[in-house]
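Can't attach files on this board, so I'm pasting raw text. These are the components:
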Amino acid sequence: MEKLKHVLESQQFSREWLENELFPLAAKMEKIVKEQGVWPSCKYFFKRRALSGKRMVSFFYEPSTGTQMSLEMAMERLGGKVVYSSDHAGETSSIAKGETIQDTIKRVSAFRPDVIILRTPDEGMANKAAEFSTVPIINAGDGKGQHPTQAQTDLFTIKKEKGEIEGQHLVITGDLARGRTARSLAYLSAKYPGVKISFVSPEMARIGHDVKDYLKKHRVPFEEIYDIREVAPHGDVFYITRIQRERGGDILFNYGPPSFWKMNQEVLNLMKKDAIVMHPLPHLDEIAPEVDKDPRAAYFRQSENKLYIAMADLNMILK
Amino acid sequence: MEKLKHVLESQQFSREWLENELFPLAAKMEKIVKEQGVWPSCKYFFKRRALSGKRMVSFFYEPSTGTQMSLEMAMERLGGKVVYSSDHAGETSSIAKGETIQDTIKRVSAFRPDVIILRTPDEGMANKAAEFSTVPIINAGDGKGQHPTQAQTDLFTIKKEKGEIEGQHLVITGDLARGRTARSLAYLSAKYPGVKISFVSPEMARIGHDVKDYLKKHRVPFEEIYDIREVAPHGDVFYITRIQRERGGDILFNYGPPSFWKMNQEVLNLMKKDAIVMHPLPHLDEIAPEVDKDPRAAYFRQSENKLYIAMADLNMILK
Amino acid sequence: MEKLKHVLESQQFSREWLENELFPLAAKMEKIVKEQGVWPSCKYFFKRRALSGKRMVSFFYEPSTGTQMSLEMAMERLGGKVVYSSDHAGETSSIAKGETIQDTIKRVSAFRPDVIILRTPDEGMANKAAEFSTVPIINAGDGKGQHPTQAQTDLFTIKKEKGEIEGQHLVITGDLARGRTARSLAYLSAKYPGVKISFVSPEMARIGHDVKDYLKKHRVPFEEIYDIREVAPHGDVFYITRIQRERGGDILFNYGPPSFWKMNQEVLNLMKKDAIVMHPLPHLDEIAPEVDKDPRAAYFRQSENKLYIAMADLNMILK
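---
Top answer:
Structure tokens for the assembled complex are below.
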């Protein structure tokens, strides 16, 4: 099994690694969790659990529930420990006293945890942290930057739900200018042949030029449209995202009628029978309540997959 | 031993269950803690501790020290783990981003913790959460609603301090309109024959009609009075509660002279020699400093009992 | 090995204890950490780790990263558990509801943790807490009071970097009126013969009279000056501290040119080749970026030493 150093951005992962290493291991983890097993399978001697003796430190400078909990739960399930965990590090850590991220990471890694989870408010901070860290870092979201474990989870979900990622038509909607999950997913799915992407958003919430340049360079067909209904009959995977209120997305709240870029019964009615609806969650009204009952709603299954991907990532980083 | 699903509200527990299951187990837990033992008694093999391998997740949307710490300490004492714990979940969890409690619980329970502790700001949220959870939920306080583990602790304390709960005259004082501990205690003590209750509070802080209707239905004699001194010579158990500043109770601060509904030397002087003073703690000036020295002050012993009740509850839910 | 009760203030430790007990044990801990060993050395049976079965509770009423993480990491490394940890206890604990520190400590110690870590906003609170606690308390900083584990770390660092503490000329700069680390270091280093201290600060940030009286009583030569350059060629240990913005130190920000009491290339150029620069961290601009590259910069090594001192303290308190 390939040893993983840091998890920083979607571009770092090859399709081969995802298909041959990460996804099979995540699937194995799912099986273990569902059968209440342990990993590795010998369960008679406590010390032998996969990550026994390993220590995680997590700094969340912005709120999260799914990402933080899935990583911490994964760590404990594999026998490791969450030693220090701050879910509002921006207020309580040394950063609040004005320390740079470099200095914080230098000090923290000197205490020799085995992995550092980092959610930061600004793009590029995880990469900067990794430069100064003697310990593996998992980027759990860096401002408007990326969210690579989410992107891994998203592709794993598409694979499970649709059988394969190749050839899928992705429809990605929402506040694409500010949402990092949309960015990370676009980067990662571009590695699969036959993928095409429709970005649906208001003009002022268009996806960044770095993503578009990347897609062009890798010859991934994409389009930018205004109305989800236009593409509803053709899409295979509808990836809905939240308005990023905490990043200045408030101006979008009154943009257009709901069916322009939200998921509701009207859009569902236009969609293929085997399409799926995804969302990194939590969602607000960009998903109408009636969607929950539709079998095509895959977002709660997607959320659960975060646990299995976290277990697989941690296992590959720490073994 | 009867398996417990959720701990949601006082009404769910029968007197028989409290007397024959919960209290004896809590007493056993107290013995174990005081003799520094482990449960079950075989201590030679680490994996065999009662809750070994069990994982707790706790969401406190409002501050607590006693409840959160007693539950987390209980979990660890029994060999289980607190995997994720937020003590200000209202700011840092997905709820802060606008997610409904149902969705949060659906996502959290998909990560397969073994028990979820939930303190929520609004009445009824714990019940709603339990509907959507695949995992046992302990309601650690839901707004003005209930606080069932506190009520269990309160009755356990009365039992220990007074020998029995039957026939006791309870004097419950404070901000009864907003305090959930008073409500939960009234509901639970009503299951014991011979209990009567004097509710002491200003007019505008009277206990809710749901409680009074319940007491009438179950033929529990009660009265509502203004001045604690009136009932001081007769009461067996004085249950003092705090003004709920965080729930709009501020208007009560200047109400009447202290002896109207607070505990001080003047009231102590009127009380029976074997009466006890209880309080869910923390207390403010509704208990005067001199009361601490009186042997009838049972509130620190009551606080300690939270640990034993938490251990018993967790054991019954998770075994 | 001498059993340690509480860690409350620098004055409580004798030079003999530091030299013969604490520092050798901390050095042993460093070796263990660096060789990825366990303590005690028998690693085959999980239950036998030094602090196995011990439980730590930590209340940080003010932000910290280094102190909290080093203590929690130390606890876990020795096999103990951090059961409850609040890093903003001022907002979320019972103190936020108006409870006194005495009552909080009485309740918390009744839950029988094995050690309580306490960082409080007001001077003397740790001592007051210790009076009411049945459990050992480590003062992790009490307002403008003291920070004894930091002072232990500081002396341990001087010992390691300079070979011995005796005879060193300490230059302590910064907001000495508000900074507790400077105070604790002055108290503790005064126990070593031949130590002399130059306090460098603006007039309005002079070190407290209690410290000066203590130094006079113990015949420790000291001076108070305005310009670090005056003493730069003579000092052995330059202990730079941060302006205490959270304690009203803001008025100092525009005081004098940087070289009056900050560390930068100009000051480095005047210093001895074997002098060292220390700082309790996090630092702001009182240390210029170029200092990091100078081999005399010892502050990151000093920060790492916190872990070894924490391991030694916990081992002595809990064994």
